[in-house]
Amino acid sequence: MTRVVRFDHYGGPEVLRIDDIVVPRPGAAEVRIVVKAIGLNRAESMFRRGQYLEAAQFPSRLGYEAAGVVESVGDQVSQFAIGDIVSLIPPSSIAQWGTYAELAVVPAAMLVKHPPTLSFAEASAVWMQYVTAWGALVHVARLQPGEFVLITAASSSVGLAAIQIANQVGAIPIAVSRTRSKREQLLAAGAAYAVASTDEDFVQQVEQITAGAGARVIFDPVGGPFLERLVDVATVGGIVLVYGALSPEPVLFPLFKVLGKSLALRGYLLHEISSQPALLEAAKAYVVAGLDAGTLRPIIAKTFAFEQIVEAHRYLEAGEQFGKVVVSLESGS
Description:
seven-stranded mixed β-sheet, six-stranded parallel β-sheet
């Protein structure tokens, strides 16, 4: 028996509960890990509310990321052994391999032996953010040195990862947050500029920063009405990558502005990288090299105990964090 987090109907953080269940042995291509830390994602909050791409089958587990120690391996697994310290790249299902647990079965193909310089908390905060940002900025957009890249929700874990990757490339990251309250933190985290989306002169600020040219690459998890203002600050021939739907408001498609600027408006998900082995290996190599060099380093906003999963989700949904929200299962956490 092991403790896992489950929920039996959609709703707010309060629907989460900790149950004792039997966790099966790993399948042929799976690994069972003792979970030491869990990285939380807004996708899990949306899934819990019934607003995600995947539907829950109740009682449902959840969770995309974790770091821990290999406890047992499937018959076809040769690349991992009992005792290996590993972290998980988000697999294809948020529920099937739910990581909110003391013991979790996960696909071996999605595991990485992370650098020993990382704590379990840091390791649980790596793969969603860096693979998402790498795939969008490096693989899809082909971000170049000296180019402006506009990053919205910049204080999120993916936003901060995008800032770090932009700096690695030699691009110029413009960080966007709702208010000016996180400006100094964003600049300290590597943003070249930080602007507030709620300012009336948002477009004017970006035009001033870019000398009127705009940003060729825009990376946005929000959507909603603000998308039109992002189109306003895109350069001719630019690309707007939308990888989330944090705004509950309808998206008004600015057709004539997109046509007039010859823009590419593209939906993007991490799974288009993780579902292709060659791309996934390239992403792993890039991220591990950055972690080893210290140019990539996850930022932890706050750490909660496993028993505080409801409070952790409330904090996640408040949207005030700077970096990753982590749940730790290590003793003394």
